[in-house]
């Protein structure tokens, strides 16, 4: 079944959990889509897990579009959400709607995601007014890493927790169809989930969120620079892949690969004429 923003809103009303993963290319998007996932986020985590940057701040609109297009081509049923990179919406309301439009029009995504609460209220309102669905993202928002002084769990004291609740309400008022809650205490995520009418999608925000999202490289052991506490391993694909590479190297060196099965034949009469 094709997922869209109504699927997300209805899931919350029916108390059904939503599932999301990140993807950055066609092949992985296709596997994910076939697994029955509700949504695929082309996150700006692209910068870290695919491009090797230390954070997400260097990711550009062109980087995002390149990958959003590939994921859109591989997704039939999942709702594709394209992340708005750093400085693509903070600069002005005009930039925000223009770049959100590119993610839909050029990238083929069904929705955009951007970070922040009350600070991006106007941007969200204008993008929604342009008929583009927006997913909010609050808590440990990676584009604010320099303001946070590192990737630190947010909302642990009363004032910050209240700010995050206010941010969620502001986003709801601005018209988002869902909100990612990242890196906040699970009891705070529970309050937010009970407060807003749109589904909350948690990452490092505990089990009371309306849905969950993970970066696929994290849950499959493909990104090992660091593993956050909230990541659960669902298989060690990194190990499987490394073993396959080692087997390939061994077989090539020992003349086992390619065998006749993986080669193309020609008649010996023709071969004789080639010498
Ligand atoms: O960029 C990303 O992958 C994200 C998720 C972690 C929510 O924003």
UniProtKB/TrEMBL annotation:
One GO cellular component assignment for this chain's record is: cytoplasm
Question: One GO molecular function term?
Answer: magnesium ion binding
Q: Where in the cell is it found?
A: Cytoplasm
Which cofactor is essential here? Mg(2+)
Q: What pathway does this protein act in?
A: Cofactor biosynthesis; (R)-pantothenate biosynthesis; (R)-pantoate from 3-methyl-2-oxobutanoate: step 1/2
Protein keywords: Cytoplasm, Magnesium, Metal-binding, Methyltransferase, Pantothenate biosynthesis, Transferase
Cofactor: binding details: Binds 1 Mg(2+) ion per subunit.
Where Mg(2+) binds, per the record, is at 44, 83, 115
Give one Pfam family: Pantoate_transf
Q: Which GO terms describe its biological process?
A: methylation; pantothenate biosynthetic process
Please give the catalytic activity noted in the UniProt record: (6R)-5,10-methylene-5,6,7,8-tetrahydrofolate + 3-methyl-2-oxobutanoate + H2O = 2-dehydropantoate + (6S)-5,6,7,8-tetrahydrofolate
Name the residues annotated as catalytic in the UniProt entry: 182
Q: Where does 3-methyl-2-oxobutanoate bind?
A: 44-45, 83, 113
Which EC number(s) are documented for this chain? 2.1.2.11
What top-level class of enzyme does the UniProt entry assign?
Answer: transferase
Predominant cellular place of this UniProt entry's protein: cytoplasm
The family assignment reads:
Belongs to the PanB family.
The free-text function statement in the UniProt record for this protein reads: Catalyzes the reversible reaction in which hydroxymethyl group from 5,10-methylenetetrahydrofolate is transferred onto alpha-ketoisovalerate to form ketopantoate.
Record's HAMAP family? PanB
On subunit structure and binding partners, the annotation says: Homodecamer; pentamer of dimers.
Q: What is this protein called?
A: 3-methyl-2-oxobutanoate hydroxymethyltransferase
Species of provenance: Clostridium acidisoli DSM 12555
Question: Source gene?
Answer: panB
């Amino acid at each position: 079944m094709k997922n869209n923003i109504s699927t997300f809103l209805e899931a919350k009303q029916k108390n059904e959990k939503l599932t999301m993963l990140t993807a950055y290319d066609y092949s992985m998007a296709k596997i994910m889509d076939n697994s029955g996932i509700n949504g695929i986020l082309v996150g700006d985590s692209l910068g870290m897990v695919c491009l090797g940057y230390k954070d997400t701040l260097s990711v550009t609109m062109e980087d995002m579009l390149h990958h959003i297009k590939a994921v859109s081509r591989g997704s039939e049923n999942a709702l594709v959400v394209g992340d708005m990179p750093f400085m693509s919406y903070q600069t002005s309301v005009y930039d925000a709607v223009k770049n959100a439009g590119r993610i839909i029009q050029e990238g083929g995504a069904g929705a955009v995601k951007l970070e922040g609460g009350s600070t991006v209220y106007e941007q969200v309102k204008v993008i929604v007014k342009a008929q583009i669905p927006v997913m909010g993202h609050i808590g440990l928002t990676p584009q604010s890493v320099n303001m946070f002084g590192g990737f630190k769990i947010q909302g642990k004291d009363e004032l910050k927790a209240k700010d995050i609740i206010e941010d969620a309400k502001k986003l709801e008022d601005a018209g988002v169809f869902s909100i990612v809650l990242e890196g906040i205490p699970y009891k705070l995520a529970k309050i937010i989930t009970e407060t807003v009418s749109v589904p909350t999608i948690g990452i490092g925000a505990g089990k009371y969120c309306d849905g969950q999202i993970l970066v696929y490289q994290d849950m499959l052991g493909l990104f090992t620079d660091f593993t956050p506490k909230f990541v659960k391993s669902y298989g060690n694909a990194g190990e499987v892949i490394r073993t396959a590479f080692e087997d390939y190297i061994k077989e090539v060196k020992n003349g086992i690969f390619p065998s006749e099965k993986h080669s193309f034949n020609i008649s010996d009469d023709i071969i004789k004429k080639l010498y």
